[in-house]
């Protein structure tokens, strides 16, 4: 019953965001724009999403201390991305379980996925702040709080890495906070705090930190190519109908990637439909492109992602010799076990 309700809510959320995104948009113009897209740039985009997935596999392999075979690690990651397309979005749980079959401890598997998300989130915030502050005509009242927010996120991340290096100081800080805010004790923050510190532990070592940062930048570079190629494929114009200049394409790609990542993080939706497209449209409006172009870019970018996840996820299923149904059942049941989130 609970799953059925969650599925219905996911569909409603997707429909709502799609309705918001498509209001006042000429669908015929959107379809015409996609039909006229340059196939050569779309091929480049498909190669970009493929490279992005496999580069992320290399990063995860390093975060797992290079113990499982690289090829199987990449297949498991790709399968996780495929499962994340489903409404319950348990792909991260599924891959953290599957990788334990390669001899990886449960805690290591879970914390490696947490670390990936933390690093990606930090990068998204930095890219978001950078792109917004570089867009012409953005009001100072928007730039200033955005810059402050980005700086606070970076400082908070650095502090948490420091606490991971010196957990005793971290717990003393948490005790101090709970002393001033007693109601936090009832929220069980100690366990969550410990999990976070364990997840950040690899970043306390220079070699592993440099590895994670380097491959994060490389894999996101491939994602940049994926998005940029679609901007070129659609020949997106500015508000006056003239072709976008290179600087605007660059900023649209950065802002679109950052907002799409945030939109895709919404757990209650069907394959991200709705929030994903709305995010791209917001990026387009900020840069100053027509809404029809933003919708075309959103649907095409989302479609390229889904095709990439589907192709490599299915290949991963075949290579690993598992069924999607079994993986889903295990992933849904596993979070109920305390050990799985320790």
Please give a structural write-up.
With 342 residues, this protein is an all-alpha fold. It has one domain (9-341). Helix content is 75%, strand content 0%. The chain contains 14 helices and no strands. It has helices spanning 2-22, 27-35, 39-63, 70-83, 91-98, 106-134, 140-165, 167-180, 189-200, 206-233, 246-264, 275-287, 291-320, 324-333. Helix 1 (2-22) packs parallel to helix 12, helix 4 (70-83) runs antiparallel to helix 5 and helix 6 (106-134) packs across helix 10 (206-233). The model is unreliable at 335-342 (pLDDT under 50).
Task: Itemize the secondary structure elements and their pairings.
Layout: H1 2-22, H2 27-35, H3 39-63, H4 70-83, H5 91-98, H6 106-134, H7 140-165, H8 167-180, H9 189-200, H10 206-233, H11 246-264, H12 275-287, H13 291-320, H14 324-333
Q: What is shown here, in short?
A:
The chain is mostly helical. It is built from 14 helices and no strands.
What is the strand content?
Answer: under 5%
Give the class from helix and strand content and strand pairing: mainly alpha
Number of domains: 1
User: What value does the average pLDDT take?
Assistant: 87
Main sheet properties: none
Helix-strand string? HHHHHHHHHHHHHH
Q: Characterize the overall form.
A: globular
Helix share bin:
over 70%
Question: Over the alpha carbons, how many angstroms does the gyration radius reach?
Answer: 21 Å
How large is the count of helical segments?
14
User: Strand tally, please?
Assistant: 0
Low-confidence stretches: 335-342
Distance between the termini: 28 Å
What assembly state would you assign to the polypeptide chains in this entry? single chain
